[in-house]
Amino acid sequence: MGANMPLSFGDNVRVRATPATERVGVAGRAGNIHGVTTPSVTGVEVVGDLTGDQAFNVFFDELDKGFWFAPELLEFVDHAPGATIAIKGVPKKWVRTADGDWEESSRVPRPREWLAWLARIFRGRQR
After folding, report:
1. CB under 8 Å to 72, separation ≥6 — which residues?
2. Which of 15, 70, 109, 115 has the greatest count of CB atoms below 10 A from its CB?
3. pLDDT in tens, 1-48
4. Residue 93 and residue 82: Cα distance in Å, rounded?
5. CB of 11 closer than 8 Å to CB of 32
6. Are 27 and 60 in contact (CB under 8 A)?
């Protein structure tokens, strides 16, 4: 699978060992794609030589830091199945599947949200 798999937001990748990736200390490290950009428009600093006009931001948990990379420096690992995205105030969440899709589902409110909801109902009944 690895080398020729198209990369996208949320994928887990491994950084190829090259002089450029060794210079920034990430050769061989695994990380997660947190963004995609067009460097000619955004002007981001990219690790590696670009052959096209696309770069991927890879975040490394153990470094608490991300870098922009030329796509050729990244090897696909997996689609990070089970990863979730939730937006504050939106009662939905998206869960990543093994094939790379994002499944939408209702998000179960946290206990504080439930308490606020119950308080509104209770106040409404007392009037």
Report:
1. 16, 48, 51
2. 15
3. 445 678 999 999 999 999 999 999 999 999 999 999 999 999 999 999
4. 12
5. yes
6. no
Cβ-defined contacts of 41-49 (< 8 Å, 24+): 44/68, 46/70, 47/20, 47/21, 47/73, 48/18, 48/20, 48/21, 48/72, 48/73, 49/20
Measured distance CA(17)–CA(116) in Å, rounded: 52
Average pLDDT, integer, range 61-77:
97
How far is C-alpha 17 from the geometric centre of its chain's CA atoms?
22
Give 47's strand partners. 69
Q: How far apart are CA 80 and CA 20, in angstroms?
A: 26
